Amino acid sequence: MKETKQEEMEVREDCESVDSNLEATVEEMESTKGTSEDLEQKLAEKTAQYEDIFSQFQRLQADFTNYKKRVEKEKGDIYLYANEKIALDLLNIIDNFERAIQSTEKTEENDSLLQGISLVYKQLLDTLTKHGVEEIEAMEKPFDMNLHYAVMQEESEGASNYVIDVLQKGYKIKDRILRPAMVKVSK
């Protein structure tokens, strides 16, 4: 009997040990369960934060790419239209050359002077053409408010809204208008 009591005691101790281990395991599982839920919540928060930062990064990258393209275009435009201001100033000189040629053509005196003025005028026009300045064709063309500046209207036998006289030539550099042509338009 002693042995059975001793065995019984050992069994009880083992049971108590198992019970305490079981309780500790249950407590650990419950605490881990709470921690697991916390970890899942933190993971979801970090994932949302990452997606937000990644989205901001993509927008910033697109903005930078657009900025680089815009700067390259502006640099190209600077080179294309660098002569625009000086060409605009030279247009008044061209107008004066044209007036001088017209006034000397009426008088037959100073034929050599007329030739000299004509040569300088042609050279100036050639230089401007070489740098992209072109005359706007206006005579007998349909009136275009982007290219022409109508200062007069006159009854005409032809179609209406056509340029019938050019009072001052217009010029453009590449695709930009330096000065619109001042014209008379048919009614």
Task: Please name the CATH architecture of the largest domain.
Answer: Roll
Could you give a short account of the major beta sheet? 3 strands, antiparallel
Domain tally? 2
Helix count equals 3
CATH superfamily name of the largest domain? Head domain of nucleotide exchange factor GrpE
Work out the helicity level. Answer: 55-70%
Could you say which structural class the secondary elements and strand pairing correspond to? alpha+beta
Strand order of the largest sheet: 1-4-5
> What would the average pLDDT be, to the nearest integer?
84
Q: Which regions have little confidence, pLDDT < 50, spanning 5+ residues?
A: none
Per CATH, what is the topology of the largest domain? Nucleotide Exchange Factor Grpe, Chain A, domain 2
N-to-C terminal Cα separation, in Å?
136 Å
Cα-based radius of gyration, to the nearest Å: 45 Å
What is the level 1 CATH name of the largest domain? Mainly Beta
Number of strands: 6
